[in-house]
Structure formats: structure tokens, C-alpha cells
Amino acid sequence: MEFTHFPVLHNEVLEGLAIDPDGIYVDGTTGGAGHSRMIASCLSEKGLLIGLDRDPDAVAVASERLAGYPAKVVHCNYSEMRQVLDDLGIESVDGILLDLGVSSHQLDTAERGFSYHTEDAPLDMRMSQEGLSAKDIVNTWEAGELTRILREYGEERFAPQIAAAIVRAREQAPIETTGQLADLVCSAVPQKYRREKNPCKRTFQALRICANDEFGHLRLGLTAAFDCLKPGGRLAVITFHSLEDRIVKQQFAEWCKGCTCPPDFPQCVCGRKPRARLINRKPITASEQELAENRRSHSAKLRLIERS
Hints:
Blueprint: H1 10-17, E1 24-27, H2 34-41, E2 48-53, H3 56-65, E3 71-75, H4 81-87, E4 93-99, H5 104-108, H6 134-140, H7 143-154, H8 159-172, H9 178-188, H10 191-196, H11 201-212, H12 214-228, E5 229-239, H13 242-256, E6 276-278, H14 288-293, E7 301-307
Parallel strand pairs: 1-2, 1-4, 2-3, 4-5
Antiparallel strand pairs: 5-7, 6-7
Helix pairs in contact: 7-8, 7-11, 8-9, 12-13
């Protein structure tokens, strides 16, 4: 199986995690093992890298690519990492990486249905290859719900028009392929908008996020990851769009918040202390060289936090 993976911000991730050769690390989204292999290569025989992924294709490939390294690969969602560590008898770890979004393999494999560039691909988009699919959503959800997810998850300004076009089309025949959906989106937006950019990106993003419950898993996964860190352990999160980044930024800020007493109190009575500190106040982005070498690094943002 060909599983191409270009680990974005790889040097910045290794530096940010401050790898201890004897430490235990979790890659919650191991994918094609790009980041996982680099982390594992820094470890001694006493160290361990645990790679998690909900995609069975990724698990199979990562298991092959990490053979010979101090590593273990587990098929699960990263939001379930506490249970995985309990099963392995591990109380806490030195560092965790979450590289969010869709992998290069998922985008480039037509039959997975993630890309709007392929006309005849089945409309799927499921990372785990099970459960609710994008096809189920567009063919069964009411216009109001379709409008909501296009607005909330895709920030699509023509959400009502696109939802209406979907509902009209499915009354004639089910929407089966990525090409059919892309044509519907193009027909629903103004011609000027079609000329300026590909109008399908936001709709496909919204359906992918919804089908995989990405934001729900992100919120659960951030909490699980933080709770699994040792004091001094670090959490690195790479996001690829503003909605993900906002969730991560707000959660990091909450963990770093100290005293909440009113400013006119002579002394603290709440007793609240920060649970973590930010490693970087502003997100780290790709260098000019990486931007030139990997187009998918353009929207990547890396945030790092250290548990107190």
C-alpha cells in the first residue's frame, strides 16, 4: 500500500517536544509514521513511541515503517489514549503530538472520497472507514442542518444556497460521488465566486469534519492528552484551519490561567494556579524552505504547552 506522508514542521516538532531519549511519547495521529519515525529515531532502547490512528490503512503502514524502532502502533482514536496507556500499564508520558486534519494519503486516494478534484470517487470521507459517511449526510439531512454544518464547520457564506441545491438534486437521484457534489456546489454559488477560487473547498471541509466528528474528538483528545502528561511533559498540536486552531488556543489559555480573583482584592483567595505554561505564545508556522517543498504546510500552525 502506498501511503505518502510529509510531516509538516518536523524540526519544530522535535525541538518543541524536547525529546528525552529514555522517555515515552505518543503520536496521536501517526498517519504514515512521518513524525512517529522521527520521534522514535531519537529514542534509546529504554524509550517508547506509541502511535495511534483511527484509520486502519495508517495503522498497517505505520506498523511496517516503525518496525525495528522502540515503538508500538494501536488502532484507535487519539481521544482514547488514556485507555490505551492504561492497557499498557503506563501512567503518564513525556510528550504527545497531535497532527490534525486529513493525511496526504487520504486526500490522494480517490476511493476514500476526500478530494473534490476527483469526479468519480465515492462520497465517503470517513477516516475510520466506518460509521456515518459524507454520502449519508448529503442524502438524508434536512436543509437546515446542512446549512448549519456548512456555516459552522466550513465558514461557507453561501451555505443556504448550497444546501438547497443538494436537497433539490437528491429528490431526483441520490448524490453518490465527489464529482456530483462538486458540480452542485459550483452551480449554487455566484459565477464571480467560482472565478476567484475553487468554491468546493469549504463544503468538503465541513462534511469531512462532520462525518468524523473532528471537533468533538479534538476537545476530548486535548483533555485526555493533557491528563496523560507528566509534570514537565509537553503537548504539541498542529492545526490546519482557524476553527481547529481556535479550539486549541482557547484550551491552552484555560490551562495557563492562574488567579481569577477581582483585581481590587488585596490578595488571592481563589487559590487557582496555572496548570501549564505556553512554550510559544504565537503559533509556529512553516519556513520559506518548507513552504516551497510542501504545499500542504502553508496553513499549518504549531502550538506547544508544558504541564506544570
